[in-house]
Amino acid sequence: MTRRVLQLLIGLPLYGFGCGLMIDAGLGVDPWTVFAEGLALRTGIGVGWITNIVGLLVLLLWIPLRQRPGIGTLLNVLLVGTAIQATVTVIPPVHGLVLQVLLLLAGVVVVAVASGLYIGARFGPGPRDGLMTGMHARLGWPIWVARLVVEVTVLITGWLLGGTVGIGTVVFALGIGPLVHVALPLFDTARTRGPGRIPAARAETA
């Protein structure tokens, strides 16, 4: 239990830190952060605080889907956006393509490691992943269809609002799955529970 709690409390802020690095790179971010950036531009509220607010609103959508949040889900809403806000406040945007690419790649890798940590702790999915699994359970949609519909919708909406879409968005989309696939077995706490352990968790992002 101590290991699981530590993984959760390290993994969630680390996830936000990785997202913050991607924002500072300025080459494009993941769909949900594009959405948060767009809302931040329109409201004047920091992108990290918007991330927390969006996470809370998404969590409310769990109610009609009859999903039950875990402690990890609730902490996700509180910590990820706060870490994003702290990162973009402390670390200024970088300039120059080489530095931007390096910061982007560092951000994607950090997000992957952080995903392995908090998912492997098994305290519940993030609000966005729970939305997609809830749609699968209640509507019968395949998870990949639910993810595609939701993420394309928030990506387009965020882009129209002024969020950053670019090569970083593509790099994240193509790279995060394989990287989490590598990171998750390293931190999956179920792998150390003996013959009766449950299978390794499906790779998810916040």
What does this structure look like?
There is one protein chain. The protein is built from nine helices and no strands. With 206 residues, the chain is mostly helical. The protein has one domain (2-192). Helix 1 packs antiparallel against helix 6 and helix 2 packs across helix 3. The longest helix is centred in the middle third of the chain and has 25 residues, at 97-121. The protein is globular. The two termini are 22 Å apart. The model is unreliable at 194-205 (pLDDT under 50).
Give a short synopsis of this structure:
By secondary structure, this protein is mainly alpha-helical. The protein has nine helices and no strands. Keywords: Membrane, Transmembrane, Transmembrane helix.
Give the key terms.
mainly alpha, 0% strand, 206 residues
Question: Helix and strand layout, with pairings?
Answer:
Blueprint: H1 2-25, H2 31-43, H3 47-60, H4 62-65, H5 71-90, H6 97-121, H7 127-139, H8 143-161, H9 167-187
Radius of gyration: 16 Å
How many independent structural domains?
1
Largest sheet: none
Count of DSSP E strands? 0
Helix content: over 70%
The poorly predicted ranges are: 194-205
Question: What is the 3D form?
Answer: globular
Protein name: Membrane protein
Pfam families: DUF6198 (PF19700)
Transmembrane segments: 40-62, 74-91, 97-120, 141-161, 167-187
Keywords: Membrane, Transmembrane, Transmembrane helix
